[in-house]
Structure formats: structure tokens, C-alpha cells
Design brief:
Order of helices and strands: EEEHEHEHHHEHEHEEHEEEEH
Shape: globular
CATH class of the largest domain: Alpha Beta
Largest sheet: 6 strands, mixed
Strand order of the largest sheet: 5-6-7-3-8-9
Distance between the termini: 27 Å
CATH architecture of the largest domain: 3-Layer(aba) Sandwich
CATH topology of the largest domain: Rossmann fold
């Protein structure tokens, strides 16, 4: 598959702080999940992809173009759909007017074609019936879906989405998964989220960022496989687990670098594997399959 994005040795600094440190990353068509704790550098990475920020060091190529060159940066933005973590909405706009405004900024000059595209993307996210409603009167989840609709304008080659399911109910999230899965058939989709279940349901590949470094980049199933034999259930909480919590049955689910002898092992999830990966780094141990 063709490479849509290639980062080589990319570092991004804010004053003396380093948000991304010597990151190498390539992306191809399909849906890739991006996981990491708060402050890991996920939003900075997405803003670099969206050409909102330049790198402090390193080389970026997006859609085969160099974002440091103004004309090429403009061309990248024409082929890009971007959903920021926090989207602003002009006061008084309806849902339709907001997406139409973004379409106009993206140089959709033919009014009839532009309006047809606005209707299409609003329908894609299930907001067609609320197109005439003022943005300020929509719920948080509805506003999030409108913001997502503008990212789909023109079926972009690269979709950069920061917490797209934030504020959505389970039915809306399930519907969005279908939309994103469809987009991944022809576009490169990078999905940054704290929802490990969305990544497990949608993505073949996951990238984990921690403190500005890529700590895992590979198939979801391989990361989950690293947690095999390290997740167990017990009637009482173990003080030796990296993470533990009480489940609905009243028993405790534990995640650790090593399960105790004779433990009742449980099938690991992506969340278990992610917690294990982060916990293993804090303990100074590498987690390997």
C-alpha cells in the first residue's frame, strides 16, 4: 500500500519541554488507533499531521508533500479532514451553516455541489434531521457529530481525528464505527482516543505514545497477545497487581507482569494489554510476548 504519511526523527518542543521526541512513523490506508495517557503527545502529533504545527526537528511528508513549503502545505490541507479535540462554533450558525462554512473555506465554490456535499456528510453522521437547528441548541454529542461531519467533506485521503467518539452514546459510537470502517477502505484514518474498545473494534494497527515516545507500533492482536497469561480473576484483590478492579460479578480482575501460580487466567483485552504496557514501563521492565 502507498504511504500517506512519513515522519522521520520528528521532535516537537514547547519552550524547554518536549512533546514528541525523535518519532518515526508511517501511515498507510486503513484505520490506525493512537493510544496514550494525557500529556503523551497525541494531540501534538495530530496537529503536526494537520499542518497546524511545524516540527522543531525532523522531516514530515504528508500525502507525498512537504508541509514546510507553503504551496504544498495548502495542497495537503485540500486532501485532509481534521477533527480537533476542541472545536469552536460561530454563534448563531445552524449545523448546516457551520459545515457549509467549512466547505466554503475548503474552496467548494459551486453552491449546489457544496450544499449537496454538506447534506451528504451530515447524513453520514446521522445529523441530517437536525441540520437546521442552531449549534448552541444542540447537545454536546450532537455538536461533536457536526464537527465530525466537516472532517468528511470531500472524502479526504487523510482523516486525522482527535477523540471523535467523545460525548456519543453507545448507539452513536457503534454507528460511527461503521462510518470510520468504510472510510478506511479508501483513506488513511488516524484515530486518537482513550476508548480502547473503539480501537479494538475498528483497528488492525495501534500506535501507543508515552511521554513523547512511540512505545508500541503494530497489530492490535499482537499487543493483546502480550497480555496472555498476565490477566486473572480472584475473589480478593491482590496487592501485587499493576492494575485491579472489581467487576460486576463481585470478583476482582488483575493485570500484572506475571500471574501468581494457579491463578484463574482470563482472556486479555486491549485495555489489559495497554495497562500492562504502561505499567511495565513504570516498573522498568519490557513487556514481550
Amino acid at each position: 500500500m502507498s504511504t500517506t504519511v512519513r515522519f522521520t526523527g520528528v521532535t516537537r518542543r514547547y519552550g524547554k519541554g518536549i512533546a514528541l521526541d525523535d518519532v518515526d512513523l508511517s501511515l498507510q490506508p486503513g484505520v490506525t488507533g493512537l493510544l496514550g495517557p494525557n500529556g503523551a503527545g497525541k494531540t501534538t502529533l495530530l496537529r503536526l499531521l494537520a499542518t497546524v504545527l511545524p516540527p522543531s526537528e525532523g522531516r514530515c511528508r504528508i500525502l507525498g508533500l512537504d508541509p514546510d513549503v507553503p504551496a504544498e502545505r495548502t495542497e495537503i490541507r485540500r486532501g485532509l479532514g481534521y477533527l480537533p479535540q476542541e472545536a469552536g462554533y460561530p454563534r448563531g450558525f445552524t449545523a448546516f451553516q457551520f459545515v457549509d462554512y467549512v466547505a466554503a473555506l475548503k474552496e467548494w465554490t459551486d453552491r449546489s455541489q457544496r450544499h449537496a456535499e454538506v447534506v451528504r456528510v451530515l447524513s453520514l453522521v446521522g445529523m441530517q434531521e437536525l441540520a437546521g437547528k442552531k449549534m448552541r441548541r444542540l447537545s454536546g454529542g450532537q455538536r461533536r457529530r457536526v464537527a465530525l461531519a466537516q472532517a468528511f467533506l470531500g472524502s479526504p485521503d487523510l482523516l486525522v481525528l482527535d477523540e471523535p467518539t467523545n460525548g456519543l452514546d453507545p448507539e452513536q459510537r457503534a454507528s460511527l464505527r461503521g462510518v470510520l470502517s468504510g472510510a478506511g477502505q479508501h483513506s488513511t484514518v488516524l484515530l486518537a482516543t482513550h476508548q480502547t474498545e473503539d480501537v479494538a473494534a475498528l483497528c488492525e494497527r495501534v500506535v501507543v505514545l508515552d511521554a513523547g515516545h512511540v512505545t508500541y507500533d503494530g497489530p492490535v492482536r499482537d499487543l493483546v497477545g502480550q497480555a496472555a497469561g498476565r490477566v486473572w480473576l480472584a475473589d480478593v484483590e491482590s496487592p501485587h497487581a499493576l492494575s485491579s478492579w472489581r467487576v460486576g460479578t463481585g470478583r476482582y480482575r488483575h493485570v500484572a507482569l506475571e500471574a501468581p501460580p494457579g491463578a484463574e487466567l482470563a482472556e486479555p483485552t486491549l485495555e489489559d494489554a495497554y495497562l500492562l504496557l504502561r505499567g511495565g514501563r513504570r516498573e522498568g521492565s519490557e513487556v514481550t510476548a
